[in-house]
Amino acid sequence: MTTRRAAADRVRVEGLGPHELQASGQRLHAELGRRCEALALRTLGVPEKGSPAWLQWRAALGTDARREQDARIALVKIAIFVTAGIDPTAAVIDARGAGVSWSTISSAAGISKQGAQTRWAERATAVLLERDAAADRRATPKPLTSPLDHFDAAGKGIAGEATRSRRGRRAAPPPPRSVDPALDHS
Q1: I need a labelling partner for 47 at 20 to 30 A (CA). Which of 73, 131, 144, 184 fits?
Q2: CA atoms in the 13 A half-sphere facing the CB of 136
């Protein structure tokens, strides 16, 4: 991602700012990912993603079979991207997330295991750790709090705020009366 962003900053087209070019590049990247996944599914003989047939197929698979199928799809995506001369980093991340070994990824990419690790391990690890952390944050229930949780240790009010004691509290002053008796509704 850093490389793409740096490249977008160097590209200049008269009349277009870097933000428009970067947004277009991101749209193209997302579309390539969707198209590659559709091609991978078609190559494997899997129904189109999101279709009723795909939902039935997916529901019929057990958890282990789903993970294995996700790994196969990711490996086919890697091979398609490499064959097309497109960076397969996103597919490599999907493959690692599905538990695929670096040996298998390197075979799909047509490079050595060491080459695959050198090229993608740092990025894949960072993204997968962030995904796991985000999933943990969503899964962790937030503790319930009550207004009493905000009182200081002495129980005299919100910590750090000046508060009056209960005895010293006065009733609120009455609202100001209007000058025009017709507007006064008291």
Answers
A1: 131
A2: 6
